[in-house]
Amino acid sequence: MLKPQDFFDLTHTQFADIFDGVEYVWEVLPRIKGYIQSHIVPGIHGTVSLLAYVGEQVYIGVGTVVEPGAMIKGPAIIGANCQVRSGAYIREDVLVGDGSVVGHTTEIKNSLLFDKAEVPHFAYVGDSVLGWKAHLGAGVKISNVKINRTNVNVVIDGVVYETGLRKFGAIMGDESEVGCNSVLNPGTLIGIRTLAYANLSMHGYYPPNCVVKLRQEVEIVARQ
């Protein structure tokens, strides 16, 4: 239930070997930095605007477009045919799969995006993994640190899994989607093909192939 293959088809990423020997899916997060250091061959093979900033430890794949105003600080490996849109901020230790979208005013750090993952508008993604075709609606924030700064634990059916991580955002399975302006609290796990309504505050484990619904009551009264 908590293994990488429970959330991802590893054929949908060029970074599959980062999961070798991983028991619990979140164990991949501390590996990202070292993985980039051992695999990166810096170079720009796509199209980068003269008004964008790209750091020295960055690889950009063929067909990828980096728009004006984007900042790729790095270290980072960005695959082929991606879109890095105006105002995007890709910080340290980021792996972006082929065909992915990092959108306007989206910030990403210490995270892995599988192929065709989309983070198009006004989002924050920290210490997280987004699966194949995972999608965040506009304004989604992935919180990666608890308010009391203690380690993030995962609780499922009363069983506590100690991650040992102070920074742990979310794991989103393949083809999962989260609606606009939702917050994913530290240690959120979303199963394959699960959909979540907008404006949710999410935490804990959500199984695959579900719809997570938010019900709210609206009252309309006469204006005085």
Question: How would you concisely characterize the structure shown here?
Answer:
This protein has one helix at 32-39; strands spanning 43-44, 47-48, 53-54, 58-60, 65-66, 71-72, 76-78, 83-84, 89-90, 94-96, 101-104, 107-109, 111-113, 118-121, 124-126, 129-130, 135-136, 141-142, 152-156, 159-165, 170-172, 177-178, 183-184, 188-190, 195-196, 201-202, 205-206, 211-212.
Which assembly state applies to the chains in this document?
single chain
The CA-CA distance between the termini, in Å, is: 55 Å
Question: Structural class of the secondary structure composition?
Answer: mainly beta
Q: What is the H/E string?
A: HEEEEEEEEEEEEEEEEEEEEEEEEEEEE
**Which radius of gyration do the C-alpha atoms yield?**
18 Å
CATH fold annotation:
UDP N-Acetylglucosamine Acyltransferase, domain 1
Summed over residues and divided by their number, the pLDDT gives a mean of: 97
Provide the CATH architecture. 3 Solenoid
CATH class: Mainly Beta
| Global morphology | globular
Detail the topology: elements first, then pairings.
Elements: H1 32-39, E1 43-44, E2 47-48, E3 53-54, E4 58-60, E5 65-66, E6 71-72, E7 76-78, E8 83-84, E9 89-90, E10 94-96, E11 101-104, E12 107-109, E13 111-113, E14 118-121, E15 124-126, E16 129-130, E17 135-136, E18 141-142, E19 152-156, E20 159-165, E21 170-172, E22 177-178, E23 183-184, E24 188-190, E25 195-196, E26 201-202, E27 205-206, E28 211-212
Parallel strand pairs: 1-4, 2-5, 3-6, 4-7, 5-8, 6-9, 7-10, 8-11, 9-12, 10-13, 11-14, 12-15, 13-16, 16-21, 17-22, 18-23, 21-24, 22-25, 23-26, 24-27, 25-28
Antiparallel strand pairs: 19-20
